[in-house]
Amino acid sequence: MNPNILIVDEILAVGDQAFQTKCMDRIYKMKREGVTIVMVSHNLDVMRRLCSHLLWLENGQMRQIGPAEEVAQQYQAYSNEFDVETLQESSDRKAFSRMGSRDLEITAVRFLDAAGNAKRLFKTGDSLTIELAYTAHNPILNPEFGLAIHRQDGLHINGPNTQFAGLDMGLVEGDGIVRYTIESLPLLPALYLVTTAVHDSQTGDAYDYHAQAYSFRIVEGSTTEKYGLIAIPATWEWQPEPTSAAEPPTGIPEPIIAEKIPNT
Fold it and tell me: Which of 210, 92, 217 minimizes the C-alpha distance to 151?
């Protein structure tokens, strides 16, 4: 197949990973060969990499057309506003897997920004605090509070707890709050699900366990990273090979140096 124009509709919505990779390799090859490609997709990353221009449709009407990165940024900003409204309007899962004796209960979970404001939408690089409110119905010696963060596709990100951190809480009674703070979120844009739990630190028995009951979303922040799971703090360095003044590079003629002839 050697078309002059290729029209592709949601090619990444079908097939397994191997099929999708094969399709994209072929599409990139066609692009290098100068084939005009018209692609319909909801995959913004692919559209950014492949397309020079984007047409944004909403309810069958053209919302914006222009250079790919310009339209992609406007679409992302619009999506972020929609996410804020959706996350604010929706409550956490009403029905989730819960187990434990409830001698010590997790009564509320909040996501806080650096200023202590409750929110669900964060940017890569932001500070995030996960706050657990609890009630101990009986005195509990040094309970172990913990979390598990999963990306929406099920990838397990981490599983911190107070025992790993060496936090000795002593005898816990009544109401209280436990907070877990990430000073600078390395996570790249996605929806993340949070499991909260409190266990007996000696036996491992659960007092209260809420499986993937809470969620927050990460959107693009100060980092320019777009691919993978996290933004790793790192730097690039480039150093060209120094050229000797006595041995100029091949193909460049040696400079002619004019000497001053002394007066006679």
Answer: 217
Q: What is the DSSP code (8-state) at residue 12? A: G
In whole angstroms, how far apart are CA 88 and each of 129, 211, 217?
18, 21, 12
Domains of the chain: residue spans and CATH: 5-89 (3.40.50.300), 98-219 (2.70.50.60)
Question: CA–CA separation, 201 vs 162, rounded Å?
Answer: 9
3-state secondary structure 171-200: EEEEEEEEEEEECCCCECCEEEEEEEEEEC
pLDDT digits (tens, 9 = 90+) for 137-195: 999 999 999 999 999 888 999 999 999 999 999 999 999 999 999 999 999 988 899 99
The tokens for 86 are 């959706």
Q: Are 150 and 128 in contact (CB under 8 A)?
A: no
DSSP string, 139-180: EEES-EEEEEEEETTS-EEE--BTTTTT----EEEEEEEEEE
- d(CA 151, CA 81) in angstroms, rounded, equals 21
* Helical residues (DSSP H) of 33-125, grouped into ranges: 44-50, 68-89
Structure tokens at 81: 């506003």
pLDDT in tens, 61-107: 898 999 988 888 788 777 766 555 555 545 455 678 999 999 999 99
